[in-house]
Amino acid sequence: MDIVNIPILKIENFLIASVQVALYDMQAIQFKDAVLQKIYETKAKGVIIDLTAMDVLDSFVGRLISDIAAMARLMGTTVVITGLQPAVAITLVELGLELPGVTTALNLEKGIAKLRLITENNADGNA
Amino acid sequence: MAMPNKVITIQSDLDIVAARMAARDMAKSMGFGAIDQARIATAISELARNIYLYAGEGTVTVSEIQQGLRKGLQVVCEDQGPGIEDISLVMQDGYTTSKGMGMGMPGAKRLMDEFEIESIVGEGTKITCRKWKRP
């Protein structure tokens, strides 16, 4: 089985990962582990997972996205999911997966703006 | 002229993706819209994963069907796994055996137009579901 190779890029204090291919279950799990490890190594304040290219998101990957957001939060990092296609948003809700607790934004640009806002507010709160 | 059936053998998580791609391709070439394509692909993903998780192996057969003037896509998922003891239980939202979120079966049913389960404990499960094309 192929090891998943989704680049996780660091820009300033943020990590950006763009999922471009359909993930097999094992690859999705590897991706989760890779994101969390990268958060730990880089001490990133925020992570964007861009799903613009994904045309299907089933309950397995949906759960994994929720898990990544929850696990990153425990590590003190905010995850924003960006670029969900209309068809994906519709099927997720019909499936019964509304991803509570997962922060989302329309696209990468708005995602970064949201992440900046959240991390700056957090910094104020901690000061 | 209907397209030939596609039969996908489910033995690993790779086959789950293969099954949903096959269903999506057929839906697309039949002229289903993008949202219905996503609904069909997602439902098949859930059902194929159930085969993989609970029966180990089985088949997914995707075919084009016609009833009078309307055309549809039919998916039959069959396995010789343990079967389902209480079908009404697995169709409840939130019921899970901890391997999933408990959205698979009821979710797949909501995404399709018709959904039938036949299951015999110790012999296996057959799920037939259909999506009709809007005229």
UniProtKB/TrEMBL annotation, chain A:
<protein>
    <submittedName>
        <fullName>Anti-sigma factor antagonist</fullName>
    </submittedName>
</protein>
<dbReference type="InterPro" id="IPR002645">
    <property type="entry name" value="STAS_dom"/>
</dbReference>
<dbReference type="Pfam" id="PF01740">
    <property type="entry name" value="STAS"/>
</dbReference>
<dbReference type="InterPro" id="IPR036513">
    <property type="entry name" value="STAS_dom_sf"/>
</dbReference>
<feature type="domain" description="STAS">
    <location>
        <begin position="4"/>
        <end position="115"/>
    </location>
</feature>
<dbReference type="InterPro" id="IPR051932">
    <property type="entry name" value="Bact_StressResp_Reg"/>
</dbReference>
TrEMBL record, chain B:
<protein>
    <submittedName>
        <fullName>Serine/threonine protein kinase</fullName>
    </submittedName>
</protein>
<feature type="domain" description="Histidine kinase/HSP90-like ATPase">
    <location>
        <begin position="35"/>
        <end position="135"/>
    </location>
</feature>
<dbReference type="Pfam" id="PF13581">
    <property type="entry name" value="HATPase_c_2"/>
</dbReference>
<dbReference type="InterPro" id="IPR036890">
    <property type="entry name" value="HATPase_C_sf"/>
</dbReference>
<keyword id="KW-0418">Kinase</keyword>
<keyword id="KW-0808">Transferase</keyword>
<keyword id="KW-0723">Serine/threonine-protein kinase</keyword>
<dbReference type="GO" id="GO:0004674">
    <property type="term" value="F:protein serine/threonine kinase activity"/>
</dbReference>
<dbReference type="InterPro" id="IPR003594">
    <property type="entry name" value="HATPase_dom"/>
</dbReference>
